[in-house]
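Quick one: co-fold with C6P.
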Amino acid sequence: MTLDVEQIRKDFPILERETRPGVRVTYLDSTATSQKPVQVIEAMNDYYRRSNANIHRGVHTLAEEATSMYEGAREKIAKFINAASSREVIYTRNTTESINLVAYAWARAKLKTGDLVILTEMEHHSNLVPWHMLQMERGIELDFIPVTEEGLLDLETYKSLLDRRPKLISFTHMSNVLGTVNPAAEIIRLGHDAGAVVLVDGAQSVPHLKVDVQALDADFYAFSAHKMCGPTGIGVLYGKSTLLESMPPFLGGGDMIKEVKLRSFRPNTLPHKFEAGTPAIAEAVGFGVAVDYLSAVGMERIAAHEHEIIEYALDRLEEIPGVKLFGPSADKKGGVAAFTLEGVHPHDVAQILDRDGIAVRAGHHCAQPLHEKFGIPATSRASFYLYNTMQEVDLLVNGIYKVKEMFG
Ligand code: C6P
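Sure, here it is.
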C-alpha cells in the first residue's frame, strides 16, 4: 500500500458510523461528495467559536482575524493548483457556479450568434446546461467531442472541429461516470492553437490528481471543495488574471465594488470583483485546511493509491457474471467504477448494497447524454478515495453476488 490507509481512516469519524445496528458504513460514493477529516471539521468549529465576524468590513480584531483566515485559505488554494497569484482564485459556491460565472460574465460579453462552443459527450449537466441556456439566448452553436466505445475522447474528431475556429472549448478533466482522465494539456494546447479560450471542469480531477493550472495553461479551471475533503457551499473558479480583468462582474452587491454612486458603480479589483455579498467564510477556512490535509498526505500518493484500488476493483468486478463495466482500463482512469448488472435495475443494486452499509450511487449521475450514448438509462457507481481499502472492494463484490442471488 502506498498510503497508511488505516491511519488516514482515523481522521474520518464518519467511517466508524453504523448505518444500522452492527453494520458499519462502506463509503464508496466520494465522486458525489467526499468525507471530511476531523481537522476540517474542527477548524470550522474553532472558527465559529473563536473568530467569527464578517470579512473586509471591520477594523476590530475579530473581523481582521476572519479576513486573514479567509484570505489565507485563498493563498493555500492558489498554491495547491499552482496559480500564478491568489488574485486568480475566485471563491464561488461550487463547480456549477464557477462554470456559470464563465457563461455569464465571460461568454455573454464575448460571444455572439453563430460563435462555436465545443463541449464533449461525457460532460456533467453543469457543463452542458449553462451552454444550452446561452444557445437559447444568444444563438451560439454547440458541438461535441465524441466519446469512443472505450470511453475515451475522440481527439481526431476534436481536431477537425477546431477547423471551425471555436471561441471556447469546455471539457471535463476527469469523467464522473467513466473515470476517464482526459489529456487536458493536449486538448488545451490544440484549443489555443485554434484561437479558443479553454475552460476545464476540474470537479473530479483536483481532488484526485496533482493539478497545475499553469503547466496545463488552462484559461479557466473550476472545482468544488466538498469533493476534496472540504465543506459543501464553496468552490473555486481559477482564471488567468488577464481574462478575469477583461470581464464584467458576475453578481452585483457588497464587496464586489470599489465605489457606488446613485446611478453607477466601479467594480473592485480581483478577486473581489467576482465575490458579491457575504461569502462562505467558515467554509473557506475549512477549504484551506482540506488543502493542507491533502498536501500533507501528498497528491501523487493519493493518485497512486486510487490507481491500485481501481485496478483491483475492475479486476474483481469483471469476474462477476452479468456485470458490465463502463469506461477505459485502470491506466486511463481515476477511481470510478460505473457498472450495470444484467437483469437488475441500478437503483435496486444500490438499495440492496445499502442494507450491508455499502454506499454507492445509482442513476445517470447528472450525465444523461453520456448514458444515452451507451444506450442505458442508469448505472450503479462505486468510487474510491484516499480512505478506501481493498477490503472494501471485496465487500462490494460480495454484496453484488448477494444481489445476484436475490434476483435469482
Ligand atoms: N458530480 C457526482 O455524483 P458541484 O455539484 O457543482 O459541486 O459539481 C458539479 C459537477 C461538475 N462536473 C463534474 C465532472 C462533476 O462530477 C460534478 C458533480 C457529482 O458525480 C454530483 S452530481
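If it helps, The two ends are 37 Å apart (CA to CA).
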